[in-house]
Design goal:
Length: 322
């Protein structure tokens, strides 16, 4: 199931090709694009060009938002397993074969593989963690997924009955509905892990993730998800895992401020940088986080001092200066 919204034609075409190259046939796999009220016909045009006669298309009359569209994908899915593949991500050769093997050898509620993070041009930047050396069930995955979201949608397939039993993605979550869902599933079902790298998650400036990060909306929602999912554990365990999660995401927010400083400069992104630092402190005000924020400010002052020094030097060396 491929949710789309104002899709970029080349990305969606690559997504569809990656699935169709592994297509076991319509009797074994449904392939459908679910469009969330796009303002153009890009998705339907790409389907006619790439997947005519094989890829189904459904268009919502108006935009429903990320979580609601994912829920619509689950509702429209007919198979025993549901794979939600973003419009700009791809699956690599062997994805469906390997996940099918996991489904046949376990009663896991969800199966996921290692994946690569790629930039806008498709070049790999990093690879997700290796959680066990061979394919199989993961031990105490609930605790690990509570501290950090280690799964992206293109890398995971979930049993349909799991969604039916636990309910859908929460529409009030705009940035982390998947993280909350993986925790909810892990609280009642086992996870099967495939160590092969079989999916690719694309990160680019126009993605929903990148847009929300500019306003620190992701950090604000992390707090909400942590407060919500703590209840999926016993009281003492939930509190301990929540502390670890807050520390992890606070440090991640500070890291993103450094990225903003390098990519955009403080003059262009100072509001976003200050929001990230403020939200990081609201999330966790441990000594580690405070020190990292202080070190960031020192870095910023050094950059400003260096620029002022170069400016003064250029004025002194300018023709006619006396």
């Amino acid at each position: 199931m491929i949710p789309t919204f104002n899709a970029r034609a080349d990305y969606l075409e690559e997504t569809l090709h990656s699935v169709l190259q592994q297509d076991p046939g319509p009797d074994q796999m449904q392939i459908e694009v679910v469009d969330d009220g796009s303002m153009d016909n890009t998705a339907s045009e790409v389907i006619r060009r790439v997947g005519a006669g094989r890829v189904a298309f459904h268009a919502e009359p108006q935009n429903q938002g990320l979580a609601n569209t994912w829920n619509r994908c689950v509702e429209r899915a007919r198979g025993n397993w549901v794979h939600i593949l973003h419009q700009d991500d791809i699956v690599l050769p062997g994805f469906y074969d390997h996940l099918r093997e996991g489904a046949q050898h376990s009663d896991a509620g969800a199966i996921f593989c290692r994946y690569a993070m790629a930039n806008s041009k498709g070049h790999w930047m990093s690879i997700s963690g290796l959680y066990r050396e061979s394919a199989g069930l993961l031990d105490d995955w609930h605790a690990r997924i509570t501290v950090e979201n280690r799964i992206v949608c293109p890398a995971i397939a979930v049993r349909r009955l799991v969604y039916e039993q636990l309910g859908g993605f929460l529409p009030r979550l705009h940035f982390f509905p998947d993280w909350e869902m993986w925790q909810r599933i892990a609280s009642q079902f086992s996870f099967w892990f495939e160590p092969s790298i079989l999916a690719c998650y694309r990160v680019h400036s126009n993605s929903a993730t990148s847009r929300m990060r500019r306003d620190a909306a992701d950090v604000r929602e992390v707090r909400e998800v942590i407060d919500l999912t703590t209840a999926y554990h016993s009281l003492a365990r939930g509190r301990g895992l929540a502390r670890k999660a807050r520390l992890f995401y606070a440090e991640l927010a500070v890291f993103h401020t450094r990225e903003m400083l390098v990519e955009a400069g403080f003059r262009s992104a100072w509001k976003q940088i200050l929001k990230q630092m403020f939200e990081a402190l609201r999330l966790c005000h441990s000594r580690r986080v405070i020190w990292q924020i202080c070190s960031f400010l020192i870095l910023w002052f050094r950059i400003i001092a260096s620029r002022l020094k170069r400016r003064m030097k250029s004025k002194v060396n300018a023709p006619g200066h006396s």
